[in-house]
User: What shape does this take?
Amino acid sequence: MSVAEVLRPDEPAAAECRQVLVAQGITKSFPGVLALDNVDFDVRSGEVTALLGENGAGKSTLIKMIAGFYSPDRGDISVDGVPLHADPASAHRIGVATIHQDAHLVPAMSVAENIMLGRWPTRYGWLSVGRQRQRALAALAKVAPHLNPSTPAGRLSPADQQLVEIARAISEDSKVLVMDEPTTSLSPPEIDRLFGVVDDLKAKGLGIVFVSHWLEEVFRIADRVTVLRDGRLVGTRPIAELDHDKVIRMMVGREVRDTVADTRPIGDVVLSVSNLSRANVLSDISFEVRAGEIVGMSGLVGAGRSELAACIFGIDPYDGGSVTIAGEAIAPNDPKAAIEAGIGLVPEDRRKQALVSLLSVRTNVTLSLLDRLTSWGLLSTTREEEIAERQIRALAIKTPSSKTRVSTLSGGNQQKVVLARWLARRPKLLILDEPTKGIDVGAKSEISELVIRLAREGMAILLISSELPEILALSDRVLVMRSGRISASLSREQATSETIMSYATTG
Amino acid sequence: MTLENPTMTQRAPTQPGGLAALRGKISFIDLMQSAGLMAVILLGCAVMSFLSPVFATVRNIENVLQSATIIAVVAIGQTFVILVAGIDLSVASVLVLSSVLSVGLVQFQGWPPELAILAALVAGLVIGLVNGLAVTKLKIPALIATLATMTIARGLAYIYSGGTNIAPVPRIFVDLQASRIFGVPGVIVLTLALALIAQIVLSRTQFGRSVYATGGNPLAARLAGIKTERVIIATFMISGLMAAIAGLLITARFEAGAATAAQGMELAVIAAVVIGGVSLFGGEGNMGGMLLGVLLLGLVQNAVNLLNVPPNWDSVVSGLVIAAAAALDVYRRNYLEAGMRKKVIAAKASKPAKQP
Assistant: This one.
């Protein structure tokens, strides 16, 4: 197989508005779910097409199909007239490169080996390290000239790993580059750099598919927007014809209003953290959360918010200080003790930290409730089913049945399953760590409303979020963290984007 | 890249009525998953009864089942360990150690047989505990940790027995082997009872649920309040105990403290468990499938004997059957899923998707 070392610089005129990838009448169903229903989609060279839709709208299925992982039940996909067979290798061969949400690199291999993965150049049948380095450098020069081709990929930051994947796509001479939520784990300067790279690639005539939940990003980078809803195509429009509200209306099919918390009676102290310290992570943290109170916790990534949650919930040990719930001290480093004391945690990464993907929705909902479902040593499956069904209805979890595998649900619905687990247990304190991360607009407002309802019912809420609008809309009080300390405790009146950011960065 | 590959039964929409109700009570679904394996076994039996006049006799079938009991009991424990994504290579050595202790303590030390049996079982539990601690506290990979205890336990058994079988066995073993319950050999009843208890523990207790969760996602299990290290240690202890019980069965069957028996049995056990649909990655599988896996391997062994396959070829034949069974199982799952998908499309096409 011949590998072009350099991306062919297409003539700009020829690159304009030429359809590279065409998908027609795509239909795909999984047991119990019609994921895509007769969807048309196309990508043009030299353009960024944003693919939008709520979780469960069918974006991921469409992308996996373009990447060759799934075959459509009906419909065809072709790239420059060459049909795509349902096989990732075929997708690569005809020029589709996909950058998945989390980087797919071999951590122990060097950057150069990863760029040339599976296509390592040979000389007289032997691997040629020199040529490999040469080609890797050529690809890196376009997207990440600062990277050393011999560094093991596992040592790179997520942002750099992503650039390595883009370099791989370039070295493969791809015509279509699919980026599935590429900015999720990037900082603002890294996002700027990525978008610079995307602009370059666009100018070189690549067709780019960009999936994101961040509309700001979409308006920054996209030329066209394709919106899916419930597996159907809502429409494809040039970005110039759209604004923020129009896109949201297309995505959810209705107006979404911002949910703002109202005032409610605040009760006794539920969580009391005093002088909590952990070497190099947290120092001298003290605060309280009262019944019915929503305390927002803001700060930059790395300020120690998730680490604080991990200490309170007993995931990580701490060196000094104490955590009490309703006056009772909780044993450190023991999640079970924390749960029994009345704490619930919705962790940041639901797939890694909360859900057992092989198990059913029902089993995942009741995973922290088994002690209450057991009598005479046996689990009561009838009661388990009752509880699961009640939570599925209460949270409007979209699932074919309670026995469906949780991994087949969309992100928003998976997050609801995690919430359902804690609602079934009724904790005194619920810690939510980035509860709406990677969740679409509709599900976001549902989760916000749920948080308010729980507070009204007297639950103490500690809400960790990087999204300032969310913090500002929901919090009665905002704690700002910086470098492992609480740098400010702001009342609702004091809390604005400006005050929070200033305490997060310099307080 | 992990793409979801759920099996058809768990994704199937619930049907109202009798079947759905039954599913709640017992793990009917899990049994259905083993249908393919069952079909292979029945087909194999049909072919064998045609090829060999001896095969379909009560005596032969009883013989097959009796020799399968030992592997089955070990496999019960192994299933627990594999469900938490572990592996236990020490089982065959534990079995041998238990066997020589149960006879030797009576012969050499003059202990009462009941006490010797108890000591043998305790030995199994202790080795399981050591395995569990090595894996959870010392963080040694299960493969290596149990490889070490496998060698150690086998060594101890040789040292204690002097490398030879110990005979005669106490009366209680002879009685066990000869016992019949409603005409069925007692060891078979015992094995089925153990498997049934194990399945109830897996599907209907907090511990069983914790086993699946720990195997499926240890971090999520811990954050849900499950003491995952304890769960892992417990599975290794169950495996040790089951291997020790199997040691008593082998003592009864061979009428000796069998110091040299069960060479390489750990691999046969792991093969049976995996053929039975228990995922080596943890979190998936059940006792019903495991029993079918054991039965299939037992039948192959029997067929090889009855058909006079040259002795050196029998392991080749067994290996081929293992590979074929595994391939067929994968094929069956894919086929069923494809069929299911078609049904769903038909159902969806007949009614328009509702807008929420």
In short: Residues 1-30, 343-356 of chain B have pLDDT under 50 and may be disordered. Residues 314-350 of chain B form the longest helix (37 residues). The first strand of chain B starts at residue 180 and ends at 181. The radius of gyration of chain B is 22 Å.
